[in-house]
Amino acid sequence: MRIIVRILLVLAALVCATAPALGAPAVDDATGRKIDELLAVRAEAGAVDRGELLARLSARLLGTPYGANMLVGSATEPEQLVVDLRRVDCFTFLDYVAAASRSTDRDQFVTNLIATRYVDSRVEFTQRKHFFTDWAATGRIAATDITASLSPAAVTTTKHLNAKADGSNYLPGLPVVDRAITHIPAAAVDGGVVAGLRTGDFLGAYTPEAGLDVTHVGIVVQTPTGPVFRNASSLADYQVVDTPLADYVRTTPGIVVLRPL
């Protein structure tokens, strides 16, 4: 889903928090089966490189219904560890794929999900990685921002993440974080940029809006018919889909690219 919509829904529903979750998360049967499927893909993949592994795992989630506001917690309500593969938004889609890529059983999956979603594995609203570039800027570091290396046309802008143009915050209870965000304008995403992308790269749709880095995220997958953007779509498809990368980029102001570690 688009991250700005997700943030607004979180604020409206007031469903996240500062207190750590207690005990193991409840996992429904459908989610348990899907986790086992992902773990089987991981086991069968052997020694493939990380990008190919992410592609194989994410392929297993194609067709998964999109769900808005999947995570639970706010500045006034306890954070809960959510493990729900019946529906995903664009960010939880990446969370689950990244966690599965490092796991061999369900316990490891949950442990790695926590480490992926939360700074220092602390299940707290204030420690949740709310912004795409948190993956490359806060522990545990999950990716490297390679955007600047892909094009001389890359532009760097200092953003005040979480601060709206009117001075209020998108997410009350979280600080404003100043961060240099580098993006490649959509018009500059040419053949050279595309050639520099690898299967498994995380791609975000840059936004010039104050307080946000991107509005949507997904995974780049190189296919025999060209690169696609694999994402949990909140548009007409309402599910995890493959969208031709060039078609998607044309709908954005630009892209931010993180390469998984």
Order of helices and strands: HHHHHHEHEEHEEEEHE
- Low-pLDDT runs: 4-23
Number of domains: 1
CATH class: Mainly Beta
Fraction of residues in β-strands: 15-25%
Fraction of residues in H or I helices: 25-40%
Task: Give the helix tally.
Answer: 9
Major sheet characteristics? 8 strands, antiparallel
Query: How far is the first residue's CA from the last residue's CA?
Result: 24 Å
Give me the Rg, rounded. 17 Å
* CATH fold-level assignment: putative xylanase like fold
Question: Per CATH, which architecture?
Answer: Roll
Q: From the helix content, strand content and strand pairing, which structural class follows?
A: alpha+beta
Within CATH, the superfamily carries the name putative xylanase like domain
What is the 3D shape? globular
Q: Please tally the β strands and state the result.
A: 8
